[in-house]
Amino acid sequence: MLEQDICGGGPSGRNGGFASGWWDELDGLVKLYGTEGAVKGAREISKSISGIEEFCSRHRVDAWFRRAGYIFAATGPRHELVCEEMVHAATQAGAPDEMQALTREQVRERCSSPAFRSGAFMRDGASVQPAFLARGLRRVVLERGVTIHEGTTVTRLDGGPTAVTESGSVRAKHAVLAINAWATAWPRIGRRVAAWSSYIVLTEPAPEKLEEIGWTGGELISDLRQSLRYFRTTRDGRIAFGGGGGRAAPRVGDTFTHDRQAVRQAAEGFRLFFPRWSEVPIVDGWGGPIDVSPTHLPAFGTLPPGNVHFALGYTGNGVAPSHLAGRVLADLASETDSDLVHLPMVNPKPRLFPPEPLRSMGAAAVRRAIISFDTAEERGEHPNPLASAVAHMPRWLGYLLGP
Ligand SMILES: Cc1cc2nc3c(=O)[nH]c(=O)nc-3n(C[C@H](O)[C@H](O)[C@H](O)COP(=O)(O)OP(=O)(O)OC[C@H]3O[C@@H](n4cnc5c(N)ncnc54)[C@H](O)[C@@H]3O)c2cc1C
After folding, report:
1. CA distance linking residue 106 with residue 115, whole number of Å
2. In a domain, 79, yes or no
3. In terms of CB atoms within 10 Å, which end of the chain has fewer, N or C?
4. DSSP string across 322-342
């Protein structure tokens, strides 16, 4: 295993810890793969959430796994309709138990915020402490005899395949590329993703304040903006609050980890939703890259001639899907003809973004427009017509992104 940083130095070690299902993604899944394929995929993600739980208990990895479900809390009238549509889609797909409608009172009973309207509850949702999970994985992989070279950047893959680094090369029968948004710099897969940043802030522990707002059940919560805000509690009584801002860039660089404006945007979202926490300090903030795909969903597969495999395009939702990716990639790399390698998200027709510089320019413009559109909608204002047009552009171009 060759890792340019330390294991978990990428988003797997510093995400929001939402191990969540795909029942909220049915709309896109059905468009891409039909109802049967969509439900199959969503059921595999459910198995992966259980798989993470089993892994943690079998290997004594205390990654704070807690299964408490996922609340989608509408903060604007259009978002209430989106919740209704998600509930309807699950029922239509024959999975009515997976997504339930919540009234405004039911949402606020579970977590009281003046911003919340009605919502939806997805039972498929668990929280983890991502760094403990990533470091636990590293320990187990080492115990199984795998050699890990941290601080080792792969500069290219030659035929063979041979992974070339500055200090040496490794040749193997098969190679797996699991490089998230860094894929934007790789010629054969770069156009499958665009790199956007996401940032999180973390409060001091304040368990008594969680009691006060009734958020003691451990549910994951997000709003329904396109520039999603996602938030959760931690075992030690904090709130971790992410999203609402960030930006796109052609390559992963400093803007993905040192963007004060994005930290401020996450903090503003937190203060807006939780005014009763106004006295509780925010003590940390961090960010990382997300690999946005044209479909909002990841794809797994094999590149010609058949010995390099990849998983990418999680679009900020990769904790449970990367577990599924691991199961799929293991079968692809060991040439096992399992049900998993026949899932419709394995080797789907490639969906590509335009070549550079259009890809990153377009991604940056759309990201800004989406944030402006979301903010106007949230304030009950009419979105600027230009921002609205740009925010809707991806859908007009056939991508499953944007409002
Ligand atoms: C702030 C933030 C919050 C998020 N919150 C959530 C969440 O709550 N729930 C959720 O489901 N998803 C979330 N995500 C997304 C999720 O973290 C990712 O989708 C998931 O971790 C992807 O896993 P991965 O293994 O593909 O990528 P990574 O964890 O990024 O691993 C890829 C690794 O490849 C290494 N690498 C890259 N290029 C090279 C190279 N050339 N040579 C060697 N090594 C290389 C990187 O250093 C990195 O460690 C979040 C992301 C961010 C940034």
Report:
1. 14
2. no
3. N
4. HHHHHHHHHHHHTT---SGGG
Give the tens place of pLDDT for each residue, 193-205.
999 999 999 999 9
Residue 333 placed within a domain = yes
315 lines ligand 1 (CB under 6 A): no
Closest Cα to residue 152, out of 310, 10, 5, 8? Answer: 5
Atom of ligand 1 nearest to the CA of 230: 8
Concatenate the DSSP letters of all residues of 330-392 into one string.
HHHHTT---SGGGSTTBSPPP--PPPTTHHHHHHHHHHHHHHHHHHHHHTTPPPPHHHHHHHH
pLDDT digit string, tens, across residues 109-148:
999 999 999 999 999 999 999 999 999 999 999 999 999 9
Is residue 21 within 6 Å of ligand 1 at its C-beta? no
Mutate to test the pocket of ligand 1, among 4, 22, 180, 259 (most ligand atoms within 8 A of CB): 180
Position 244 scores a pLDDT of 78
- The pLDDT, as a whole number, for residue 175 is 98
Phi-psi region of 169 (alpha: psi -120 to 50; beta: other; left: phi over 0): beta
What's the rounded mean pLDDT across residues 164-179? 97
Based on the number of CB atoms within 10 Å of its own CB, is 306 exposed (0-12), middle (13-18) or buried (19 or more)?
Answer: exposed
319 lies in some domain: yes
Contacting residues for 345 by C-beta, under 8 A, at least 6 apart: 32, 33, 37, 41, 297, 298, 299, 300
Residue 181 covered by a domain: yes
Pairing between β-strand 70-73 and β-strand 220-222 as defined by DSSP bridges: parallel
In ligand 1, the atom with minimum distance to the C-alpha of 291 is 19
Query: Which residue in the block uniquely carries the two structure tokens 């009973």?
Result: 109
Kindly report the backbone phi and psi dihedral angles of residue 365, in degrees, each rounded to the nearest multiple of 5, phi listed first: -65, -45
DSSP type of residue 193: -
Q: What are the pLDDT digits (tens) for 299-320?
A: 999 999 999 999 999 999 999 9
Domain encompassing residue 178: 153-192+296-342
Instruction: For residue 189, name the pLDDT band (cuts at 50, 70, 90).
Output: very high
Instruction: Give the chain's domain count.
Output: 1
